[in-house]
Automatic annotation (TrEMBL):
Gene3D superfamilies: P-loop containing nucleotide triphosphate hydrolases (3.40.50.300). InterPro entries: CobQ/CobB/MinD/ParA_Nub-bd_dom, DNA_Partitioning_ATPase, P-loop_NTPase. It comes from the Bacteria. CDD domains: ParAB_family. It holds the Pfam family CbiA. This is ParA family protein. The keyword Membrane does not apply. Residues 1-20 are annotated as: Disordered. The lineage of its organism: Bacteria, Pseudomonadati, Pseudomonadota, Alphaproteobacteria, Rhodospirillales. Residues 31-174 form the CobQ/CobB/MinD/ParA nucleotide binding domain. It comes from Skermanella cutis. Keywords: Plasmid.
């Protein structure tokens, strides 16, 4: 009995190998927001941005405040001449178009969004930013005025089903005001277990384009890095 001939391989140019295309990795977005001025939104943006970059993440800062304090700080950082500083980019944006512009940012691990004080004046844009965010950080001080602003703003986060946490800023530890404020905030929402103390080193390096995180022996540096660790774990970065 004759054996069937083996089938011949097709001649000609071999078929190209299939190329697997990985889905575009979109950055995680942290919104730092509040409805009152002087609570440390820009300071927290600097702290988190620098600490995240030192941790090996590619970071973009977005400044939507007309005062452009974060962008001005970043310009000083670029012009400082310190070659060993952690690198991060900064994009000044008009808050009314920021949600669309932020959606186009790619190639970053983390986008930190600093917002203006008068959120009520930009209600629609702020609501879109809230929807865009993966996590929201709400800085607040210890005073009645600070809490009176921060607590209702946490209510807005809950209304939109957004993961959020208070972070107490410029605190004087050991005071009755600090303990009372902490208890009241814990009743209303998540509270970052690390607070930022009212220390000169936390703020005094800003005019050089630096943050306390950049200075190894800066007082309060460990607290600043602790804030980043909290954010990193909450955002699963």
């Amino acid at each position: 009995m004759m054996k069937k001939p083996r089938s011949k391989k097709a001649s000609g140019t071999p078929a190209p190998e299939e190329v697997s295309v990985e889905p575009l990795k979109l950055p995680r977005k942290l919104l730092i927001s509040g409805s009152k001025g002087g609570i440390g939104k820009t300071g927290c943006s600097r702290i988190v941005g620098v600490a995240a970059s030192l941790d090996g993440l590619k970071v973009a800062l977005v400044d939507t405040d007309d005062q452009r304090s974060l962008a001005a700080w970043h310009t000083l950082r670029d012009e400082s001449g310190y070659e060993t500083l952690a690198k991060l980019d900064c994009f000044p944006m008009d808050i009314t178009t920021a949600p669309e512009e932020i959606g186009k940012l790619t190639g970053y691990d983390l986008v930190v969004i600093d917002t203006p004080n008068a959120v009520q004046a930009y209600r629609d844009a702020v609501i879109r930013l809230i929807g865009l965010a993966d996590f929201v950080l709400l800085p607040t001080g210890m005073t009645f005025d600070d809490r009176r602003s921060a607590i209702p703003w946490m209510g807005v986060m809950k209304h939109y089903g957004k993961e959020a946490a208070f972070v107490m800023n410029r605190v004087k530890r050991g005071t009755v005001a600090f303990r009372d404020a902490k208890k009241l905030l814990l009743k209303e929402g998540r509270l970052c277990p690390v607070d930022i103390p009212d220390l000169e080193h936390i703020h005094s390096f800003a005019d050089q384009g630096l943050s306390a995180v950049d200075i190894d022996n800066a007082k309060g540096r460990d607290d600043c890095i602790g804030l980043w660790h909290f954010v990193r774990n909450e955002m699963r970065l």
